[in-house]
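Note on ligand handling. Small-molecule inputs were canonicalized before submission; formal charges were left as drawn, and no protonation-state enumeration was performed. Where a ligand contained multiple stereocentres, the stereochemistry in the source SMILES was retained. For flavin-adenine dinucleotide, this procedure yielded the string shown in the input block below.
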Amino acid sequence: MQCKSATEFPWAGSHPWDVDIAIVGAGPAGLSAAIRLRWLKTMPPLPLSACLINSGPLGGLAQLGNSILTSPGLSFPAGELVKRLKRDLQKWPLPILRGKVVAVDHKKDHFKLTLEDGRQLTTLAVIMACGMLDIRNMADFWRQGVVATFGNRENIFTILKKELPTCANPLVVGGRHLRHLAKTIHTLNPKATLVVPISQQEVEESSSALIMGELQEIKEKDGKLVAAILKTAQGLIERQVDKVILEFNSLELERSPLPMGVPSQKNGFMTTCVHAQDVTPGLFGAGDCTGPPFAAVVALGQGAEAAFAAYRFVYEIKYGGKPALFAYYGDSEVTDTLTERDDFPLHGKLVPAKLIHDCPLPELNPAWSLVDGRRSIAELSKEKGLGEKELYGQLRKLIQERALTFCPVR
Ligand SMILES: Cc1cc2nc3c(=O)[nH]c(=O)nc-3n(C[C@H](O)[C@H](O)[C@H](O)COP(=O)(O)OP(=O)(O)OC[C@H]3O[C@@H](n4cnc5c(N)ncnc54)[C@H](O)[C@@H]3O)c2cc1C
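Structure output:
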């Protein structure tokens, strides 16, 4: 069940599937999940393979505004939270695919993800962290042509009154509720285009000029907004625009459709969350895509929680036992009869596979150069030059460095 798009994965070809855990979206929720999965804990149990698939900027909405997590004592200026997360991601890297996931197919024992450009990926677990909207390249023009409503009820109107009359071809992007602002918007600027995720029938029934669809991409010329590509039922259309207004109130009330196959509530947000993975075992949700409250601190927490849950789910499938996650879940295997056992005891039948492209420490190169994702430790120990004890020692250190996983135990 392997797919072409995964050829860039360092572990390509070692497992029957492309990646153990795929994370969809790289805002605070997705980044938190990715880092938690790669780093896991200070005394590392066994790393698994993971990748991020993201259609927008790394950091999602937290790249745009300040992130006040709990109160002024825990706040980050715009982009600073993301910078910190990126730093950790550089230390414990994982592949990041640029693209939009359009379908999540639940097969008998795995998931098949389909991207907008046709690429496909198979995975044992999925963490949906795709926020409340597909941001694409909107962040590149933030406050330079792209603005948003925020704050309180009154401020929504203050912003619309300030922004709409001063431009020639504004585009207002929002959720279904945006219909209720159509008259105000068109009074302020009759040439405004409203893009809403409603049905064609609702568009026809509306007395205002609405376009059913979503914003796909913004185009610029000499650093200025000139056009927007909109995805509609009739296909992609291009509109001249000189300003894009994101109407967050309506985006928060109802989400535009999630990728096909992802269960959603009446308001469009994801049904499943960390504690409700029974809806679809192996499919986890975190952050804004699971509904309100929309906040970076919630997204970070749910991302970490989804990562632990996905880790436990996949670990059992791959290795047939429970992972040692003392400090987060407790470890019932610690008893009088168990003395000084490893979190993950290495043995000859295990087949190591690389999680990163380059050897993390030069002194571990002898074992690193042997690992090919096909041969077991017993087979590798027959190679000349590196004794069995040294091989085991180096493999242990490579696990500490989060550089190795192992193929599923057969
Ligand atoms: C101006 C502003 C100020 C804010 N201030 C605060 C604050 O002070 N405190 C606070 O706690 N919160 C604040 N927030 C909210 C906070 O930023 C969000 O709640 C948080 O970013 C949500 O994180 P997320 O990872 O769930 O989603 P997002 O940050 O939205 O990230 C989701 C990512 O997934 C991508 N994506 C979407 N669909 C797909 C798909 N199908 N396939 C692949 N990728 C996809 C998106 O393009 C995006 O990159 C603010 C938001 C804004 C806009």
